[in-house]
Amino acid sequence: MTFHAGILERIRSAPLAWPVDVETLQHVETRGYRVPGDMRCTGPVPVRYHRPAGVAGALPAILHVHGGGFVSGSAKASDARCRQLAWALQCVVISVDYRLAPETRFPGALNDCLAVFGWMHEQASALRLDPAGIGLMGESAGGGLAAGLALYLRDHGGPLPIFQHLIYPMIDDRTCLQPNSRPGVGEFIWTPESNDYGWTSWLGSEPGNDDVSCYAAAARAVDLAGLPPTFILTGDLDLFCDEDVEYARRLEAAGVPVELHVYQGCFHAFDCAGGADVARRARACSLKALRAAMRAHSGPSQSPLPLT
Questions:
Q1: Using H for helix, E for strand and C for coil, what is the string for the chain?
Q2: Which strands, in side-by-side order, build the sheet including 92-96?
Q3: Which of the residues 55, 120, 136, 278 has an alpha carbon 20 to 30 A from that of 210?
Q4: Measured between alpha carbons, how far is residue 191 from residues 4, 32, 113 in Å?
Q5: Which residues contact residue 159 at a Cβ distance below 8 angstroms, ignoring those fewer than 6 apart?
Q6: According to the model, what pLDDT value does residue 301 have?
Q7: Is residue 213 a contact partner of residue 147, using CB atoms and an 8 Å limit?
Q8: What b-and-e string marks burial along 233-244, b requiring 16 or more CB atoms within 10 Å of the CB?
Q9: Catalytic one of 72, 95, 140, 201
Q10: pLDDT at residue 20, rounded to an integer
Q11: d(CA 22, CA 27)
């Protein structure tokens, strides 16, 4: 299916496919908040708050940014993924319901994420989370927003996240101008036509212009030094594969610790396939990296259930 304006509402109403562990979900408390916006936001930003039940004290936290090509998706649709992460990692997961394009263009969604990140620090005590232990995570366009947020915080003196965990991140509008690098790339789930629509909707102009901000398209950043340790996972048939691998290479060259995983024969969003062995391995790899990043911050911790 190719994303375009004519089917946008149907795409937005479609449920998100994610393997559900019903038993795990019973052990996680979920509630909604409305985060006060600042001068960059038009109003309160809705979020979904997930926390393992019965666990006392301040926990490390993840600011989660959902995918959807900048034009679809929601925090609520990501509940299953976030609740399973909260239980498996024994952490707080807060998913931001940022404003979507094309109704809201850059920097609207980034400002929403920035407001929530600041709120997590300011209200850490009430939210029962450790403000010095907040990491960023996002998939697809959410990975692009997380990467842009990390750059913005580095450049503007905000508290930095302890890691950025990017799942097939959408970070380079210039991919729209390039022919497919290998047969099969971009033929499934997220096509070049969808990519052009997503970037045009987000930027409010044709992709590839010289004046695109690095906070809108993280691959545009000239200097990547000083960013937090980074995990990137993608498939070699994903349209974003080349831009993701290049971003990892540049991060490493800038002295940023990087962990890169490219899964052969896999297209965009392949990790959502519940019964596929490669999807299970990718989810386990992602979870292992998240656990290690949190352990590096706070010491050994228990994880009662695996993420399947």
A1: CCCCHHHHHHHHHCCCCCCCCHHHHCCEEEEEEEECCCCCCCCCEEEEEEEECCCCCCEEEEEEECCCCCCCCCCHHHHHHHHHHHHHHCCEEEEECCCCCCCCCCCHHHHHHHHHHHHHHHCHHHHCEEEEEEEEEEECHHHHHHHHHHHHHHHCCCCCCCCEEEECCCCCHHHHHCCCCCCCCCCCCCCHHHHHHHHHHHHCCCCCCCCCCCCCCHHHCCCCCCCCCEEEEEECCCCCHHHHHHHHHHHHHCCCCEEEEEECCCCCCHHHCCCCHHHHHHHHHHHHHHHHHHHHHHCCCCCCCCCC
A2: 28-35, 45-52, 92-96, 59-65, 129-139, 164-167, 230-235, 258-263
A3: 136
A4: 11, 33, 26
A5: 121, 131, 134, 153
A6: 39
A7: no
A8: bbbbbbbbbbbb
A9: 140
A10: 62
A11: 9
Which of the residues 95, 268, 271, 286 is marked catalytic?
268
Residue with token string 């080349």: 242
Q: Is 238 a catalytic residue?
A: yes
**Chain segment 221-241, per-residue pLDDT in tens:** 999 999 999 999 999 999 999
Q: Can you tell me the distance from the alpha carbon of 255 to that of 224, in angstroms, rounded to the nearest whole number?
A: 8
Burial bucket for residue 282 (CB in 10 Å: 0-12, 13-18, 19+): buried
- The pair of three-digit structure tokens given for residue 299, joined into one six-digit string: 């010491």
Distance between CA atoms of 233 and 241, rounded to whole angstroms? 9
Beta partners for residue 165, in sequence order: 137, 231
Alpha-carbon distance of 21 to 120, in angstroms, equals 27
Parallel/antiparallel/unpaired status of strands 28-35 and 45-52: antiparallel
Six-digit token string for 287 = 């979870």
* Per-residue pLDDT tens over the stretch 89-111: 999 999 999 999 999 999 999 99
Categorize the per-residue pLDDT at 63 as very low, low, confident or very high, splitting at 50, 70 and 90.
Answer: very high
Residues 172, 196, 238, 242: which is the catalytic one? 238
- Model pTM above 0.85: yes
